[in-house]
Amino acid sequence: MVGIVSYGGYIPKNRISRMTIFQANAWFAPATIQFAQGEKAFCNWDEDALSMAVEASRDCLKGMNKKDIDALFLASTTLPYADRQNAGIVATALNLKEEIITADFTGSLKAGTTALLSAIEAVRSGERKNVLITASDKRETKCAYLYEMWFGDGAASFVIGSENLIAEFKGSYSVSYDFVDHYREVGRKTDYIWEERWIRDEGYMKIIPEAINGLLKKYNLGINDFSKIIYPCPFKRAHRDIGKLIGASKEKIQDNMHEVCGELGAAHPFAMFISALEEANPGDNILMVSFGQGADALWFKVTENIKNLPPRKGIKGSLADRREVTSYEKYCIFRDLLAVEMGIRAEAGGQSPLSILWRNRKMILGLVGGRCTKCGTPQYPKSHICVNPECRAFHSQEDYEFADREAKIVSYTGDLLAISVEPPAIYGLIEFDGGGRMLVDFTDCQLEDLKVGLRVKMSFRKRWHDKERGFHGYYWKAVPLKGE
Amino acid sequence: MATGIKDKVAIIGMGCTRFGERWDVGAEDLIVEAFEECINDAGINPAEIQAAWFATCFDEIHVGKSGLPLSLILHLPNIPVTRVENFCASGTEAFRGAVYGVASGAYDICLAVGVEKLKDTGYGGLPAGGGGNLSWFVRPNITAPGGFAMLASGYCAKYGLSMDEVKRAMAHISWKSHQNGALNPKAHLRNTPTIDEILNAPMIAYPLGLYDCCGVSDGAAAAIVTTVDIAKALKKKHEIITVKALQVSLSNGEEAGFTTWQYDYIIPTTKAAQLAYKEAGIKNPREEISMMEVHDCFSITELVTYEDLGICERGKAIKDVLDGFFDLNGKIPCQPDGGLKCFGHPIAASGLRMLYEMYLQLLGRADKRQIKDPRIGLTHNLGGFPFMGIASVAIIGRLAD
């Protein structure tokens, strides 16, 4: 048996009401009102497809032994690097073992399901035991475009394996077409998109039913054999009409999440599937279909084991964890769609030496410190001489992961002089449970949220973008925990 | 067995430029301005200087690296010139080099110069850090005000105080320095804001407002030191001023890495002060110290420094501050020249500037801000950040005391 061992989700906290977007742009693009329902999720200024992928993967690995992962596939159309394997950055951030294969799956919105199928084949062949697949997208549009309403940001992950399955893979059916509803040339920021009515009629409403019917025929099934059917389609009526075309009753069609987060690109079928799994019962058959230059249809059957999955944030938890951004200008500045003057001070910077990054990759990307084997003191960074003045042992430290440990605030400030996309820059000193201290930036919070002693957790973020050299720097920040 | 520096070295000349936004001059001009006053005060010939220590911090934006700028600008006679840099303690480090040069017996007369030309960056505040090292990858974008502002949150939490209480004391500290700075023609900031204006100023880094932050200034200061015997032979009319103690202490990484330190005080200052009092033979600093110039880069720094120096009990500085203990007419006037707050803070000049004020006060030359019969003056610098700092404490006084 091959199937899903675990799932994880990450949708950024920021939400903007579509009416806020509409109101800002109504003078220019009144027709966008047709999509102005609910709200969309969008990345904080320090997040991108890669950082979200790390967060979704961490959620997915909850309760798992990371050493069991022997492959990592990353699926997205908006990865930061064209050449520097993005999956390799994710693997380092997760501090996975080094004897694994990593791969980027990209170039299509169905990249997630294709990666999933590749993972299933790798496990079924016996070559790989557990494959982590993460799909993530942060798609950009110009301001006041219909698709600005449509797109959301998010990531979702699965581990595919052959033991302790929560959902067994039963079969799939794929079609591949060069159906160019949109495209994005290498190096461009936004899509070129054909008329939405044509995309709806010739794309979603034909290709998705074709994939579904293909799967039903292949396995000699009827649509009523499934308790949930998942397919993306942001057009509300068309989403419903596809259900009619395949003969599925309304309650079997999984909500397209337009009103709660928007369409998450390559991660979207995964996020919808996880939403379904979060409500599923053992024995449920679930059909997941992607859409993007063709379609992949995948059939899973939920097992008894789903009840034993350790608690996690998932999609449900991510959707509940929200902060509303009421300014469209702020939304635009966060996405670098509106240039603000950052001042001469912001010119400081320079190279990010790659030799330093390589030597310290575990420290920088993996937040791995040291623990003294003589006195037990956790410390960051790991160093040759123990920081404990009562110990000061030489060469006594073993690797010690801080990323999944909670911490409390020792002190903090909100700094209006420091360069920040969202001033004030909030940073401080934290102390981890069990020991170890770190100076950190705080994110996803306001200065008013903080106090000495407040508990925080770590989150993988983009710290800087060196536009001159095209380098994206990633590191960890602290996020205050709610209800502490 | 080390015997310490007490009364082994005399200061025979000092000079200090006007601090401020000296748009019309560069570091080259500032060095000459401070040196000219210093050499005239010493009454010696520049050719008699046998070695020099030169402090600059942000070499990138003014004279560059090495001791060469000082040697070239002053046309020193091919003597050794050593550039020193230890953040905000740089000026005191140059002084320490010169003093130790004399004390060691290697030289008779040494020069210390500190200069900083900060107002060529194009923006306010200190120069921002650049890329190129490991901290670039991992360190938050910490600025000086932000790094020190965290003292306030830590101090409040430690002693269960409200930020309003602490802010009120911080405001008095800045108010006092503005009152003193207004009396000083060389000070950068000579205005006299009210307590309310200070409290209601725009925020820079919570909870520090504009008036909680010192000036970012251009300036230079210099000292010439020699042996006590040579100082006596110069037969000056005034008392001989000697170095009583000179201590530097640096963080060892515990604050941000190990201890139960709660961001409420400065470990290196505490350590340097203890060593300095021992070196100077001071048993009770609150009674024996006449005046101080402490590193008030931010008002909260000055507040905790009172405790770190052992002048106030831990957690009790607020009361002394509000009682006027550190005002110009108080028991221990602090920042009589306006401090970093108002005299200004050209990084590598500040340590020498503080000594300059103590020297003027000890010689009765401080004009409108003259303290009555001061005997022992203490200066204190704090470089880096509270979680990784460099503290220096210098104590000077009359040879006879």
In helices, the fraction of residues of chain B equals: 25-40%
Placed side by side, the strands forming the largest sheet of chain A appear as 5-4-6-7-1-8-13-12-11
Task: Give the class of chain A from helix and strand content and strand pairing.
Answer: alpha+beta
Assembly form of the protein? heterodimer
Radius of gyration of chain A: 23 Å
Succession of helices and strands of chain B: EHEHEHEHHHHEEEHEHHEHHHHEE
Overall pLDDT metric of chain B: 96
Strand order of the largest sheet of chain B: 3-2-4-7-1-8-11-10-9
Number of strands of chain B: 11
Number of helices of chain A: 12
Strand content of chain B: 15-25%
**Poorly predicted spans of chain A:** none
Shape designation of chain B: globular
Distance between the termini of chain B: 24 Å
Unreliable sequence segments of chain B: none
Estimate the global geometry of chain A from the Cα principal axes.
globular
The helix/strand class of chain B is alpha/beta
Biggest chain contact: A-B, 51 and 46 residues
* Distance between the amino and carboxyl termini of chain A: 43 Å
Please, what is the average pLDDT of chain A?
96
- How many helices of chain B? The count is 14
Tell me what the structure shows:
The complex is a heterodimer of chains A (484) and B (401). Chain A is α+β, with helices and mostly antiparallel strands and 484 residues long. Chain A contains twelve helices and 22 strands. Chain A has helices at residues 18-25, 49-60, 86-93, 111-124, 146-150, 196-218, 236-246, 268-277, 314-320, 328-334, 354-359, 361-364, and strands at residues 3-10, 14-17, 39-42, 71-75, 101-105, 131-137, 154-161, 167-176, 182-183, 192-193, 228-230, 285-289, 294-302, 323-324, 368-372, 378-379, 397-401, 407-415, 425-432, 437-441, 455-466, 471-480. In chain A, a hairpin with a 4-residue loop joins strand 21 and strand 22. Chain A is globular. The model of chain A has no long low-confidence stretch (mean pLDDT 96). Chain B is an alpha/beta fold. In chain B, 35% of the residues lie in helices and 18% in strands. In chain B, the strands form two sheets. A nine-stranded mixed sheet of chain B has the order 3-2-4-7-1-8-11-10-9. Chain B is globular and about 55 Å long. Chains A and B meet through strand 18, strand 19 and strand 20 of A and helix 4, helix 5 and strand 5 of B.
